[in-house]
Amino acid sequence: MTGYPAGAQVAQNDRIQIQNTVPVAGAPASFADLTAALQPAVVNISTRQSITIPQAQNPFEGTPFGQFFNRRRGGGGPQTREATSLGSGFIVSADGYVVTNNHVVSPDQRAQLEEVTVTLPNGTEYLAEVVGTDPSSDLAVLKIQRAEPFPFVNFGDSAQARVGDWVIAIGNPFGLGGTVTSGIVSAVSRSTGQGGAFDRFIQTDAAINRGNSGGPLFDMQGNVIGINNAILSPSGGSVGIGLAIPAEDAAPIVQALINGEEIMRGYLGVQIQPVDEDIAEALGIEDGIGELVQGVQPGEAAEDAGLQAGDVVISVNGQDVTPDNTLSRIVANIEPGTTVPLTYIRNGSRSRVNLTVGRRPSDEELMQQNMFQGDEEDAPTPPVPDAGNGVMESLLGIQAVEITPQIARQLGQPADTKGLAILAVAPTSDAARRGLSRGVMILSANGRAISSVEDLESVLQDVQDDGREAVLLRVRSRQGATQSLPVRFMDN
Question: Cys staple from 358: which of 152, 158, 277, 301, with CB 3.0 to 4.6 Å?
């Protein structure tokens, strides 16, 4: 992974020359030579998935009237539907290791991944093996094989990227095939405000659209300094705010996945909040330094060390906690079991304690712990849905989970509450226009009680099969107000 010459290559020691493609000063005369050198290593990635949707049970099944109320021909058995996804990736070794985003190759939780295909720029297709995935960083490594070596590119040093540097992005937007866009680095260490150890991106105005996910962002020396990951956009199309995972974060994870190593990250067990101007004024501390502890998980490292809600953690292991170097990021990069010093402010006084860093739970466990409360130190935030593969996401633009007793308590509801709790809503959906948002509960759809995602998707499928384009949802806000709302389907 390190020490290889820059530019797409056919073997480790067979370098394609890219010198003199960029003048020493000023804008490049053309990106053509650089693109020609790099594009052979950038690939298209497509997946085939199967989604099983259970049929709703006939309420008159087993009664004398059952035969008159069969919902569909063929009975009430589950239906299997096929779904696909499309993205980009790049080859990082002559023997065919491919890097992409985890969300490109990881299907919806209700789907089964059947096949991953990698297509080279010349149109040659290869079935790919998923070598390893890391949902927390949204990275995945695939493997393709052939007798002769593959062209490949190398990671560069993203820490050297400066605002204003030229970059180019190569990928597969909208399934069009290899597409090149250019721009500059708009920001480094950009946080989107979602929190977590990996909420830290290179921002670029090089056009990135749906399908670019997992593709490389190159510097002018032909090194990968970022992995295109997301865009910020009110419309779903590029408006010049693209986000890429920095190579300095991605490269060690990719190498660990290639080596078959387990990804282990440090964890304190706290809910946290950045120190803004108001918090700093209230506590009489410097603005923008440290993070406020909102809560402490029982039995985790922070509780063992005596941290309390209201403490402000200002440094860990000799690193200051800042907006660009968050507590989540610092701790996640400490090996579990390591004892490190931590400095915090309590009641205006600084204190220092040595604590032994714990091991970060899985994303699923973290989301269950803190799904509808404050920001867990490294909890994943559900992505804003678009017209995705699942029926609920595709038709309503909603992501939701079954309400468990733990989630019900977080929402201030009785433990036996049944329904779905909304995690995220696509901003362009009718659901968003109707005021549905994170934490709202879906209790029924078209008069049928909902207790699982499959229940809701069965209703949606019935509505769609009947040629209608809206569903009546019975919803309850966190404040307890219950109402029925008609929600129209998204335009897909």
Answer: 301
